[in-house]
Design a protein that fits this description.
This protein is mainly alpha-helical. Helix 1 packs across helix 4 and helix 3 packs antiparallel against helix 4.
Length: about 290
C-alpha cells in the first residue's frame, strides 16, 4: 500500500489533471453542475453495482469516477468563489469531529482543551457530556449522531429531513425506519414485527379480492414497508438482498434463453413446462458450484 505522502501526491495529480481538462478540453469546459448531475447518478450506480458483486478491480475504478465528480464540482465551485476542494474536505472533517464526541471530546481523548462547542457553525453551545452516552457500540454512535445533527445550524431540522426525496423507494423506506430507530421509535422486540407483517399481508389480500386497485396499491406499500422493517430489525439489508435476487434471476433466465437458442426453439414457442425444466437446470448448476 502507498504511504501518506504518495496518497497526497496522487490526489494532487488528480486535481492538476482536472484543472487542465477544465481549461483545455471543449467538453470539460462547458460542463455545469446541472449537466454533470446525470453522469454522477450513473457513476454512483456503477459503483454500487461493483460493490454488490464484490468486484475489487471495478470498485477501485468506479471510486475513481465518483471521486473525479467530487473534484469537478469543487472546481466549478471555486470558479464562482463559492467553495473549493479544501472547503469540501475541511467541512467534512469538521462535521465528523463534531458528530463523534466520544472520540474527540477532551474527556475521551485526553486533549488539553475541549472542543469549541460554541463554534458559530454549530448550535452546540451549552452541550454537556451527560447528553451523550459513552458510545461503546455502533447503535449508540448512531443515536448520538442523530441528536447532534439536529443541533447543527445548517443541519437537519427534523429527524427525517435528512432522508433525500430522490432516494429509490426501497432504500428510502429503510433509511426512514433507521432514523426513527435512532431516536427510540422502534419495536421493543424484533420478533413483534411479524404480527405487523402478517396484518399488512392480510389487509393486502382482502383488498385484492375486492379488486380495488387504488386501495390494493396502498396496502401493497404498507406490506412492503413492513417487510423492509423486518429486514432491518434482523440486520439484513433489503436493497442488497433484492439485488442479489435480481442478479440470480438474470443468470437463470439467461441460461434458459441461451439453451432455447441452442435447440433452435425461441422462448415464445416454448411451453412453461419446458422453460421450467431449463430453469431448474440452471438452479442445479448454481447449487453445484456453490457446494
Amino acid at each position: 500500500m502507498h504511504t501518506r505522502e504518495e496518497k497526497l501526491e496522487a490526489f494532487g495529480r488528480l486535481l492538476d489533471v482536472l484543472d487542465q481538462l477544465r481549461e483545455k478540453c471543449p467538453w470539460d469546459k462547458k460542463q455545469t453542475n446541472e449537466s454533470l448531475r446525470p453522469n454522477t447518478i450513473e457513476e454512483t450506480f456503477e459503483l454500487c453495482d461493483a460493490l454488490i458483486k464484490n468486484d475489487v478491480h471495478n470498485i477501485c475504478k468506479e471510486l475513481g469516477d465518483v471521486l473525479m465528480h467530487v473534484v469537478f464540482y469543487s472546481r466549478i465551485g471555486s470558479e464562482t468563489n463559492d467553495f473549493d476542494i479544501a472547503d469540501v474536505c475541511n467541512m467534512q472533517a469538521d462535521k465528523l469531529i463534531f458528530r463523534h464526541p466520544h472520540i474527540y471530546h477532551s474527556s475521551q481523548v485526553g486533549q488539553k482543551e475541549p472542543l469549541p462547542l460554541d463554534d458559530p457553525r454549530f448550535d452546540l453551545a451549552g452541550l454537556s457530556e451527560s447528553e451523550f452516552q459513552n458510545a461503546e457500540t455502533s447503535d449508540q454512535v448512531l443515536q448520538n449522531w442523530e441528536q447532534i445533527k439536529l443541533r447543527e445550524k445548517d443541519g437537519n431540522k427534523s429527524v427525517l429531513s435528512g432522508v433525500p426525496n430522490s432516494l429509490p423507494s426501497l432504500i428510502k423506506a429503510y433509511r426512514i425506519q433507521d432514523k426513527a430507530r435512532n431516536v427510540g421509535f422502534d419495536w421493543e422486540n424484533k420478533e413483534d414485527v411479524w404480527a405487523k407483517v402478517h396484518e399488512e399481508l392480510k389487509e393486502l389480500e382482502d383488498e385484492l379480492k375486492k379488486e380495488d386497485k387504488e386501495k390494493s396499491t396502498k396496502e401493497l406499500g404498507d406490506f412492503l414497508f413492513s417487510v423492509i422493517n423486518a429486514a432491518r430489525l434482523y440486520k439484513l439489508n433489503p436493497d442488497n438482498a433484492l439485488e442479489h435476487t435480481n442478479q440470480k434471476f438474470i443468470r437463470r433466465f439467461n441460461y434458459v434463453e441461451e439453451h432455447s437458442i441452442k435447440i433452435g426453439k425461441p422462448l415464445t414457442e416454448m411451453t412453461l413446462s419446458e422453460m421450467d425444466e431449463l430453469w431448474n437446470e440452471a438452479k442445479k448448476l448454481e447449487n453445484d458450484i456453490q457446494e
